[in-house]
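Hi W.,

Here's what went into the run:
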Amino acid sequence: MDKLVLIIEDNSENYYLMRYLLENHGLRVIGAVSGWMGIEMAIYNKPDIILLDIQLPGMDGYSVTRRIRSNPEIKDIPIVAVTSYAMVGDKEHALAAGADGYIEKPINPDSFADEIIYYLNNKRRTDEDPMR
Amino acid sequence: MTISDFKTKGFQSIHWKHIFSLRRVFTLIILILAISQLSAFDRLIRVGVYQNPPKIFVDDHGKPAGIFVDIITEIAQREDWELEWHYGTWEENLRLLAAGELDLMPDMAYDENRAKLYDFHKNAVLLSFSELFSRKDIKIQTYTDLDGLTIALLKNSVQENILEDTISGLGIQCRFLRFDSLDEVFDSVADKRADLAITNIFYGRMNAREHQLVESPLILNPSNLYFASPKGKNQEILQAIDQHIELMKSDPESIYFSSLRHWSPEAQKWELPMWLLITMLLLGVTFGVAIIGSFILRHQVNLRTQELQKANQQMELKVEERTEELGFALREAQVADMLKSAFLANMSHELRTPLNSIIGFTGILLQKLPGELNSEQERMLTIIQNSSRHLLALINDVLDISKIEAEQLELKLSEVNLQASLEKVVSLVSLQAKEKGLDLKLEMKTKNLFIKVDQRRFEQVLLNLLINAIKFTDKGFVRLICKQEGNILRITVQDTGIGIPKDKFDVIFAAFQQIDTGLNRKYEGTGLGLSISQKLIRLMGGDITIESEIDKGTSFHICLPLDQEGHDG
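Here's what came out:
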C-alpha cells in the first residue's frame, strides 16, 4: 500500500506519534502545522486521506473541513477529525462540517493505523466509529 | 487643516447669468472686486470646530453640529455674518486662535491664564462641570481614592489645571495621560490604559454608557463656557454675541433652549414621561370627578383606588423583588454553568494531549516497532502503560460525571439483544475471574428479549458492576442473573465477596467514595464507577439498588422498564 496521508496537527509529539504508526503500516505521511498550510499541501499533494486536529491555532479544524469541502480540487478527499475535546456535540459538529470520521485522543496505538486504513478503504461517510 | 468649509445662509449668492450677460472683461473684474469688498463687509467669521459632542462636533454627514454650532449659526443669520468652519483638534484650534487665524473658538472655559491670551464675551453660553468617569470595576468615593491611579484627560483642557491643583493640594499621586481628543480619552479608560477620565459633564454623560464607564461622585469646579476670540480683535463680534445670547436666554422658545433640549436626549427621556404621567393622572382624575358629579361616588372611588393602589404597589414591589432575586440567581447559575463547561472542555483537552503521547509512545515501544526490549524494560513500560490508562479512565470518569450533572450527556437509545449483550460483557471479564479462581456465570431466566437502551452505556454499567464484583471477591462465585418481572427487567450482579455494611449503602453511590476497608490500596479504582452507573441507569428510566451482608457477599440489582411492544418469547 503506497497511500499518502496528510496530517494537519500543530503538536509535534502527536504528529510524530501518528506518523510513526502510519509509516509502520506502509503509508506515506506528510504533515502541516496549521489549517492554511494543510489546505495548501492538500491542493499541491492530493493526499488519499487527511487527518485533521480540530483544535488548531488560528483557523480551527471545523473551518478547515468546510474549506476543503468547498474547494473542487480537493473536496472528495476523506477527512478524519482527531480531537481531544470529547464534549457532547464535538463529533456531530465535525461530521456536520464535512468530516468522514472521528477519532478521539488519546489514540489507541494498537488500532490507530487500522482505523485510518479502514477510512481509506471506506470513503463513504459513516456515523459509527468502526472500532468501538 | 481646513477640512470642511461651509457657507451659512448669510452668504450672498452670485448671479452668474448677469455676469455672462456683460460683455466687457473689465466690468467683470470690477464686479469681482466689488463682491470681495462686499463679503469683507459681510464679515467672514472663521470658527473652530473640534470633537466634543454634544457641545460641538462634526456629525455623521461631515457637518458641524451641537449646541454651540446651533447658537452661532442663529446669531450669524441675524447679523448677516458668513461662517467658515475650521475643523481640527482642540490644540490645533487653540494655536490658530492665538495666531489670529480663527475668529471664534466655541466651548472655551474662562480662566485667568486664557484671559491673557484671548478675549471672552460676558454672557456665558453654558455652565459646565468637570466630572470624573471610571470603569465599573473601580470604586471612587473621595479624592483620596484617586491615589496611585491613572487619569486620562484632554491636552491643554481646563480639567488639566483644575485636577492637578486639586490633587497636589491633597498630597496624593496620580499619573496623567494626555490625549488630543475626548474620544481617545474615553477609549483609553475603556481599554484599561487609564483608570479614570475627566471630561466635561456634557460629553461625559452622553458618551459614558457607550464606553461602559460610570460617573464618579467627584465633580470639579464649575466653569462657564464662552466663545473666545483672539486678543484685541473682534470686540464687536463678542458684543453682538452677548446681546443675542441675552435675548435668547429670555425667550423659552429660542434656538438656545431648543438646542439645549435637542442635544440632551437623556434629560428629555428621563424627565418628560414623568411629567406627562403625572399630568395625565391628574387630568384623568379631574375628568372622572366632573363626569360622575357625585361626591359620595368620588369618595368611594378614591378610597377604592387608594386601596387598590396600595395593594398594587405592594404587589409590584414584591414582583420586582422576586424578579430581581430570580434574575440574579439565574445569571449566577448561567455564568457558573458556562464556566464549568468551558473548564471541562479545556481540561479534557489539556490532559488528553500529553496523555496521547504517553500512551501512544509506550504502546509503540511495547509493540517493539523500534526494536527489541529486555524483560526489565518491558515490565517498566507495562507499568507506565497501565498507569496512564488508569489516568485516562479517571479523566473519562470525571468527564462523564460532569457531563451527566451538566445534563450534557445524550443517550443513543436502540433495540438491543439482551442475551448477546450480556454474553459479550461476561466474556470481557472472564479472564479476570479465571485469574482469581472465581466461578463466573450468566444465568438467563428469560429468552429472546430485546430492550431499548444506550448499548454502549448499558454495557459500561454491567462491566463496571462485574469488575467491582470480581475485584472485591477472593473466593466463591460472581453471577450475572437476568429475569423478567412483569414489565420490569431485573439484572442482578451477585458475588460472595467482602460485602458492604448497611450504613454505607447510600455512600457508595456518591462520587469519589470507596468504603474504608483498610485495604483501599488493594482495591484500586476511580471511585466514580458506581456513581456513574447509577446516574446512567436512571437516565435510561431505571435504577440500581443494593443488597449486602458483610463477609457473605453483595448483590447489585439493575431494574429497567421493558418496552411495551418488546419482543417476548
